[in-house]
Design a protein that fits this description.
Blueprint: E1 19-20, E2 31-41, E3 47-59, E4 62-64, H1 67-77, H2 80-83, E5 86-87, E6 101-103, E7 106-108, E8 111-126, E9 132-148, E10 156-157, E11 161-162, E12 173-182, E13 187-196, E14 199-201, E15 220-221, E16 224-234, E17 239-246, E18 279-286
């Protein structure tokens, strides 16, 4: 009805609305361009340093437009491209009955751009009769994580952010340092330090596509540093015993009340942080 144009009308008490998803026979393949430049240095024996710059651009990204974006664009601009995706029920609502919904199927939407630097360092040294030590360091410095959710509606940078639009945290710095002691007794021990940089809730961004009011307690998910220990014993040519402890100091994951719906769980991101705390594992292998 005309009187409902640009009017959200009858707010859902649960803050939820019906959506209709599905496939699209008119989808086109995504298109991407990747640029990489790297250098490997070996200034002396048993030492190597690799630095790689990367830039990945994806166009015609296949995905679903956020239903909230579709509704807001229709209400604020009256664009028929978005308004045609909204079907109201006989009450004028988008939630009271199944006949009211926002259509958000697969489409060729906007674009993605990721740019950064990968660093890898390897070093090995002998320690006399005690065997040898090996060091491996890997890090990614993310310079840009640009998202254009719908072509023509603007872009925003998700570097160092997380949330409903940006999804899983993309910290500016992630790294891992692994030190391994190779003993002369068929017994190896390793310690791994894992670092995940801090991220802010996307609402703290100055970009108007992301900016919103954020409670101070939800503003930042702090950095996390984990220490893992592992050991391997080659008892015989056929039998190997392995074991270890991940997250030795039982660090809790950072929490936020504004974790992106569909991306996180339990007010955090289990795919990024150690949500289960300290974990002990053991493995035995026998070849015959």
């Amino acid at each position: 009805p005309d009187n409902l144009f640009r009017n959200a009308f009858i707010n859902s008490p649960a803050g939820q609305y019906n959506t209709l998803g599905g496939g699209n026979p008119n989808l086109k393949p995504e298109e991407s361009d990747s640029s990489t430049v790297g250098i490997v240095l070996t200034p002396f024996r048993n030492f190597s340093l690799a630095i790689d710059y990367f830039k990945i651009e994806v166009e015609k990204v296949i995905g679903t437009a956020p239903p909230g974006t579709i509704l807001n664009q229709c209400l604020t601009t009256g664009n028929p491209l978005f308004c045609s995706a909204i079907t109201r029920d006989r009450f004028g609502s988008l939630w009271a009955t199944p006949q009211g919904f926002i259509r958000a199927g697969n489409e060729n939407l906007g674009s993605l751009t990721a740019e950064g630097v990968d660093v890898e360092l390897n070093y090995a040294m002998k320690i006399g009769q005690w065997g040898g030590l090996k060091f491996n360091f890997n890090a990614t410095i993310l310079q840009e994580n640009l998202v254009e959710p719908i072509q023509g509606l603007g872009k925003y940078d998700c570097t160092g952010l997380h949330g409903a639009a940006c999804g899983v945290p993309t910290p500016e710095l992630r790294g891992k340092l692994r030190t391994t002691w190779e003993t002369p007794w068929n017994f190896d021990v390793s310690a791994t330090w894992r670092h995940i940089g801090s991220v802010d809730q996307e609402g703290t961004s100055s970009n108007p596509l992301l900016a919103s009011t954020v409670n101070s307690k939800d503003r930042t998910m702090g950095q996390r540093d984990y220490l893992d220990l592992a050991a391997s014993w080659q008892a015989t040519k056929q039998f190997t015993l392995r074991g270890g402890i991940n997250n030795l100091f039982d660090r809790d994951p950072p929490l936020s009340g504004l974790v992106g719906a569909g991306f996180g769980n339990g007010n955090t991101y289990p795919q990024m942080y150690d949500a289960l705390g300290r974990r002990v594992f053991i493995n035995a292998t026998y070849k015959f």
